[in-house]
Amino acid sequence: MSDFDQQNPSRRTFMKQVIYLTSVVAAGAATLGSTAARAATISKADAHYQDAPKDGNACSQCYYFDNGTCKRGVVDPISPNGYCDYFSPKS
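The structure corresponding to this sequence follows.
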């Protein structure tokens, strides 16, 4: 193989390298994403979640409540009438 061939790989070799690197990056991103998702969840016990309002405050009035899900990361299902330590009133 000449010096020219080593310095200028073929299009096929280049495409193989691009596909390989893309798959490595995608696999790494998927691993990080699932790890981040697990780290972002908060157990109901840790949040001191209860199924009843506290002092007139309920999840449905909370900034973090969105259609049955807690954007703060408290594990679903969340009741609109529930309450936890992360309550923050909607503005």
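The chain has two domains: 1-40, 42-91.
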